[in-house]
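Researcher: Please generate the 3D structure of the following complex. Treat every line as part of one assembly.
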Amino acid sequence: MEEDRKVSKTTSDGNGMPDLVFQRVIDYIHDARDRDAVSLVCRRWCEIDAGARKHVTIALCYTTTPRMLLRRFPNLESLKLKAKPRAAMFNLIPEDWGGYVTAWVEEIARSFRGLKALHFRRMIVRDSDLELLAQARGLELQSLKLDKCSGFSTDGLLHIGRSCKNLRTLFLEESSIIEKDGKWLHELALNNNVLETLNFYMTDLVQARFQDLELIARNCRSLVSVKISDCELMDLVGFFRAATALQEFGGGSFDEQPETYSSLSFPPKLCCLGLTYMGQNQMPIIFPFASLLKRLDLLYALLDTDDHCLLIQRCPNLEVLEISLSHGLKYKSGILVQQTRNVIGNRGLEVLARCCKRLRRLRIERGADEQGMEDERGLVSHSGLMALALGCLELQYLAVYVSDITNSSLEYFGRYSKNLCDFRLVLLEQREGVSDLPLDDGVRALLQGCNKLRRFALYLRPGGLTDVGLGYIGKYSPNVKWMLLGSLGESDAGILEFSKGCPSLQKLEIRCCCFSEQALAISVLQLRSLRYLWVQGYRASKTPDLLAMARPFWNIELIPERQVVVADPHGAAVSVEDPAHILAYYSLAGPRTDFPDTVVPFEAAAFLNA
Amino acid sequence: MSRSAVELDFFRMEKESAGKPQQPKKLFDRRRSFRDIQSVISKMNPEILKSVIATGSVENGNLLASKPKDDDPFLSPALPLLSAPAFGNRVSGTTSLTIFYNGTISVFDVSLNKAENILKLAAENVSKTVDSDLPLTRGKSLERFLQKRKER
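Model: Done. Output below.
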């Protein structure tokens, strides 16, 4: 009898394995999908996993509530929250769309005592949120990332700088921050000596003082990564000298005479670099350590094809390259005074394929489009891509804007790029005819060959992919979790065929296609893993056909057609029509309660139209 | 009073009459078949058609000023108008449907029902080509960089 009682205290469900054993084992299971699977085995395992879970990513903050998160995962140490649709990064989503962190910060301040790392992406943050966070969790916080966020000022950062003495990571990249002064950096410099990563890259914070950067470098012996906004590089001589452990640097600017920079020396371990406004004349300062470079960001540099080739040839250890199809145009007071060609082009890709055998990630962005200044040598098309596929066998991530494309170049990827997990291709809108449309066969070959593919984006034009081609995408992408379909297919038949496949598809973005509301609704119901849909550009109907996808826990929102002000190629403000968006997602929290004027829950919209 | 279908080439899109710029050509052409009307509509630029339908209605008889385009027939045509006056020929039950397109004017005798169907058909064709409304946008950070570069 005694023994039976002892046994029943330590076993879980009578299967014989004590909880204690499983609690130890679960600490070694880190992968989120594995933990998810484990939590579904039985109630006891769900409880054990929940109690021991260290990190959670909530892909859309409106799918749940802070209370629900606390109830299930009370011992969280790290939380990542995302809100605005990805399209916000392309200026397609109203600024006040939503994604306020306030309720989350309040719960964190109240209840999540173990929280050390916080990452908000595309959310709205207020100074008061930062103040509360600093006050309640200041000493515990080791990592704070405000990633493409907006709504706060340098006053909010002042609280962080003052109170977060144990902060190892402060990441603000691409956030829209209202700048009052540079005091926040000064406070950080005074109060912190454990900082490892500091990033305010692509923010427009210009009042941050280089003297404070130097102070941080001197105090924080573990400083490995610093990316800043515009700041004259010659002012950073002291900083570079002090930051002896630095491995990554990004930002700065070149405002002095080119010769000045020859005296600039960089930290010895520097292997990740991105210098803003770097031109042909300043490029040689990198040559002494180019062979050490693993990551190179040339998105905001001012180089042409020849320069790119010269530089890339010297970087045999390159693993990550970001580059722009951008034209070297010199402006003075808004008037074009000089044009040098500034593009990577097929030749650049050929050099890359020959020299950089370790390349894992390549991103070729779209630069300025100036009329009549297209350079043959600078455009990326099939020959460059084929060389790339053949030469860079380690490639895992490719995102590229092309001016021309063929089926055979896509087939090359299917044949050679066996490590590809993330493939994104956009066909630029030029007037010239494209060699080889539709791309049905090439796309099929790519999908069949690249069986590690998890993310896939294809943005073409009418005629680029037929309904059959769309069907291929559905049939041959068993493991793809995220997709962007841009201007693909010919009719509803295409999306309906597509949605019979894609068994793993969780998140789907559709832009500029011709599908009807009804076809979209049916497709949603057919895609068995789908939990998030975003559409812009579809055939609206007078009747609320979208209702066909109405179901429990499925929120449907509309951003009706509106007028937006954008900058035209000459920088003038023009008012354009932004077509309607559909956003739909699974949620355990019911419909949102914080809609701005620009966003409408579907039920109301249907009622108004009836 | 019966009205015949009239096609007037004010802007001389037909190049044969090169010698007399002032004289409009008159073509008397009776078009009654629905298919003819449909084919005329399908050749129009849906963009323009959409804006016309949005602003105008069956009663609207307003004329919008349209500039003559160059002689290049491949450029987008001048703004066409669809107008079907409410007070048509009550005696026969038909009203006249006037279509201004690419420098030509076509007038059709159709019943009110048919006129509405044509307008609906045009609207349907319009919504199919949403693609032209959606240009490729660039990432925010790149857009800002390109602006800043101009200011340097």
